[in-house]
Amino acid sequence: MSRVRVLLYLRGDDSEPIERAYHRVSGTLAGTPGLLGNELLRSPHDPAELAVLSEWASLEEFDAWERGPDHRASTAPLRDHQDGTRAKPFAIYQVVSEHRADEFGES
């Protein structure tokens, strides 16, 4: 099983409501099986463009949560902020290869 990263694309001229919604959702999701963590990201080139990047232990655990009864209610605070300019407001990626900074030798 490989880890999975999920991107949820958000958009808003005022990021404060998005940040509040992100913190509400994150609090609700604390302790969710398989969820390793998440981050709220903002584009340095377009401050209205944000994304939530979540990391899951496996696709199976993400799918189980997504199909579960709490998924829609727990993520509802972010729904109004999804980026409607995109064909899909989210993307799912499986980690197929990885290099960490601590793996590189010193020069």
TrEMBL record:
The keyword Oxidoreductase applies. Keywords: Monooxygenase, Oxidoreductase. Pfam families: ABM. One of its GO terms (molecular function) is monooxygenase activity. SUPFAM superfamilies: Dimeric alpha+beta barrel. Residues 2-90 form the ABM domain. This is Antibiotic biosynthesis monooxygenase. It comes from Amycolatopsis camponoti. The lineage of its organism: Bacteria, Bacillati, Actinomycetota, Actinomycetes, Pseudonocardiales.
